[in-house]
Amino acid sequence: MLQAVAQGVMLQWGWRRAVLAILAGALSSLAMPPFGLFPVLFLTFPVFVWLIDGSVASGPNKRRQELLSSAAVGWCFGFGYFLAGLWWVGGAFLVDAKTFGWLMPFAVMLMPAGLALFHALGAAAARALWRPGPLRVFAFAAGLAAAEILRGYALTGFPWNAFGYALAQTTVTLQLGALVGLHGMTAIAAFVFAAPAAFGLQDAANARGRLLVPALAVLILALGSAYGAYRLSIPEPPATAKRIRVVQPSIPQEQKFDSAKASETLSALLTLSDVATSPQSSGFADFDAVIWPESAFPFFLQDEPAAAAALAALIPDGKVLISGLQRYETDASHPRGYRGYNSIGVIDTSANLVAAYDKTHLVPFGEYLPLQDLLEAIGFRQLTNMPGGFDAGSARAPLSVPGLPAFLPLICYEAIFPGVADRALPRAVWLLNVTNDAWYGDTPGPRQHLLQARLRAVEEGLPMVRAANNGISAVIDSRGRILASLPLDERNVIDAVLPGALPPPPFTRLGVIPALVLVMLFFAGALVWRQAGR
């Protein structure tokens, strides 16, 4: 039965072949939140392999035509995957529909089309190593994993919904992040989920190979699960004894920077920060720190003395407010005369900014425009309301906070990238991710963002506190488990004790090296198999 299905897929041609690849890619998106149906990849990846099998040609340009045909399959698969998995990005263009609404269809279609080029490259690379038989799965895994790693770094990188996140859907396999990181998990996923393609062969001479590849996939999953179970069995690190309150104000995005509602926004934040939730949590004074989300202030705090006075009245002696905020510094050498930053600030009882981190990894078209001056001249501007776009900070380093252990700051989008810590700097004790997913409403976006944040905690062996304006605020332990959370659209607080940190896991020392080793092993397997057929 499976052999007949494989044969039918291989023989598809023309538009049917393209549609089948797009559908397989779209179905693959079900492996990601909010669905988390990762077993679907056991169906869609073999289809991807069989479509590459069908990339045959004849004549003097046979090799070139086979590579182009495989690239077309990869592009169609990737387009379906990203269209179905990232359609919600278009919601950001509807927040200010008068200005940006016309761009939404282009963003929804062009972004998947561009990202699919990486899958096209991966499929072509796999075909270059291809030899019919069960071990061609090595070539598939090498090509796809290499392309996904490249996607994570090229043009500032965008590893959103990398296939490694399919293995992050269970707490046990999530622990693989501590060993090999996201990109290593992607390499494993590419091989494991494609392994059933070996059963689609009809050649009796490859009977042994038909069992070898799936058996190896099962062994890899078993070893990965054993490692995960072991890591989960390690005794809990002692908690820090520091109490924190995370505020989720759930301010609608269209209100966030509405000057007419600025006092209403600030009032909601002030009220939540000091609300009594229990006899043990009667207000700000019961916590070492209160945490507000990304760009919490609907204005530049440095220009609003009345707001600063309200903060001074709110923050007790010896306590701090940690908040996402927008700030600027005058700079005569800058064309605008100032530099604007998307920041995390630590504010003391006198409303002084005692420490700050400026976001280093900005969102293209969201926080700045590539070729800013040129695109502004023809009428474009970034989605955020900073005139001229944000400037990038110089470096990310742990922030020291009075009365708290040092934390590593991550602003929104920065939490999607593995390897967030600079290994040359002292290690932080916890991660802080402030974000604002209100741009995307009640869509898969905020759920996908949360899963990526959980994997960062596992990779670093550090607990994470996540404060969202709207989205999913959470306290996450160093194994990626959610200890407390708030759902979308809920205006509330999380009161928690800051969890403890685990010792640095292998990924913190090795970074992307394990992923590259896995890709090279798959490449070597494919090359040996190819040479054996000559």
Radius of gyration: 25 Å
Could you say which overall geometry the principal axes of the C-alpha atoms support?
globular
Instruction: Write out the strand line-up for the largest beta sheet, numbering strands in chain order.
Output: 5-4-3-2-1-12
Summing up helix and strand content along with how strands pair, one would put the structural category as alpha/beta
The CATH H-level superfamily of the largest domain is Carbon-nitrogen hydrolase
Low-confidence blocks of residues = none
Query: Number of helix segments?
Result: 17
Mean pLDDT, as a whole number? 91
- The CATH topology of the largest domain is given as Nitrilase/N-carbamoyl-D-aminoacid amidohydrolase
How helix-rich are the residues, as a percent range?
A: 40-55%
Strand residues, percent:
5-15%
Number of strands: 12
End-to-end Cα distance, whole Å, is 31 Å
Q: H/E series, N to C? A: HHHHHHHHHHEHHEHEEEHEEEHEEEEHH
How does CATH name the architecture of the largest domain?
4-Layer Sandwich
**What is the CATH first-level class name of the largest domain?**
Alpha Beta
- Count of discrete structural domains: 2
Q: How would a crystallographer describe the biggest sheet?
A: 6 strands, mixed
